[in-house]
Amino acid sequence: NKVTEGAKFIIKNFHTIERAMLLKLYEMGIAAQTIIKLCHTAKTGTVVIKCNGGKYILGGNIAKKLIVSCL
Questions:
Q1: Which residues contact 34 (CB under 8 A, 6 or more apart)?
Q2: What is the chain's pLDDT, residue by residue, as a tens digit (71 residues)?
């Protein structure tokens, strides 16, 4: 699916993610029910998101495990 930079999403869940990575995301404030804004996407799948007042870069392998809904 094609997503637009600047779009806002709510994280619904995570798809088969390792516990250590899940804890790292939680430490950044990225959890279920978190609202995120997509700032940039790269061809490699890497994304830049904004949430909780911070900007974060997520590699494609992590970004594709986020289950989100559009706002």
A1: 10, 11, 51, 52
A2: 567 899 999 999 999 889 999 999 999 999 999 999 999 999 999 999 999 999 999 999 999 999 999 99
Q: How far apart are CA 40 and CA 18, in angstroms?
A: 25
Phi first, then psi, for residue 64 (nearest 5°) are -75, -10
**Rounded CA gap, 57 and 68, in Å?**
17
Picking from 13, 63, 56, 57, the residue whose alpha carbon sits closest to that of residue 34 is: 13
Report the C-alpha gap between 21 and 31 in whole angstroms: 11
Of 2, 6, 71, the closest CA to residue 39 belongs to: 6
